[in-house]
Amino acid sequence: MTTVAAYAAPAPKAPLERTTIERRAVGEFDVLIDIEFAGICHSDIHQAQDGWRPGIFPMVPGHEIAGVVSEVGSGVTRFAVGDRVGVGCMVDSCRECDNCRAGLEQYCTKGGPTWTYNDTGKDGEPTYGGYAQKIVVDENFVVRVPEGLSLDVAAPLLCAGITTYSPLRHWNAGPGKKVAVVGLGGLGHMGVKIAHAMGAEVTVLSQSLRKKDDGLRLGADHYYATGDPDTFEELAGTFDIILNTVSAPLDFAAYLSLLRTDGTMVNVGLPEEPVQIVLQSLFGNRRSISSSGIGGIAETQEMLDFCAQHGLGAEIELISAAEINEAYERVQASDVRYRFVIDTATI
Q1: At CA 79, angle to CA 75 and CA 80, rounded to 5?
Q2: Which domains does the chain possess?
Q3: 155-188 pLDDT, tens digit each
Q4: Is the model's pLDDT at 214 over the cut of 80?
Q5: Are the CB atoms for 262 and 285 separated by under 8 Å?
Q6: Alpha-carbon gap, residue 181 to 219, rounded angstroms
Q7: If 37 and its partner were Cys, which of 155, 156, 200, 225 is the partner (CB 3.0–4.6 Å)?
Q8: Distance between CA atoms of 155 and 306, rounded to whole angstroms?
């Protein structure tokens, strides 16, 4: 066991505070990572505040982890000391079900994957995330950060990047396809960058035009305000894919009306409250509504390689650990462009 410094929420809705946690000894197939940067995801806030389900406390959030390998187990073949690596939302799965064998570990059918934090590992101990100095992870759930991506802008790709890349790839975003990204935040800004790099025609749908210049700079071809009712009339029947990145209920009937025949609205934001779908809004043009949850390990590596190839990193604001609670408040107020990243040397 190794004692490391970390930032944890001691109880639901409590401010995060500096503490220490125990990391397991490096096993045969484990990798010890010196964490250099950890992104702050809105889901960290949802879970630290018991927004989705009762949490395990004290809770060390963080599933956008980038760092350097400092030790490997005797059986490790994929990584060596000094490698630049990342860890995302999960650190294990059953590895035996059809989904795991297909590289869809995020959809493990035997109880789901083991999440990087706010979960219980196979050893019966709570998992603790990336707001810490070090982490020990099985090599099968570690990915390589390619040269050309600095670790600070790569960290958010381990959630925001794969969460948007996976559905865009699955629903074949590319040349000839019209993609709308709902919300220009931590997820949305990466959705715009990735869809543009895939060759799609990209439109941002945001509440106002406040971030229009940013949206166009990041790769959007068009930018519309959803607060203007004329937007829904003008864009009716336009899009092949709508990628909804917001974590709040929407007027789904209005957004579904923007789809072409056989178009799909994919939801990657997860509101805390239930939402209602009017089935009549799906009829007539064979529209679909779906969802997507991160990506498997192989696809996460593919995403990182794609981002390195196209020079895509997250737009970040680097902060010290002492600023985490303020950052949480600013995320909830939509006052970040577009991802806070913790310099873990300050923990």
Answers
A1: 95
A2: 2-159+295-346 (3.90.180.10), 161-291 (3.40.50.720)
A3: 999 999 999 999 999 999 999 999 999 999 999 9
A4: yes
A5: yes
A6: 11
A7: 155
A8: 15
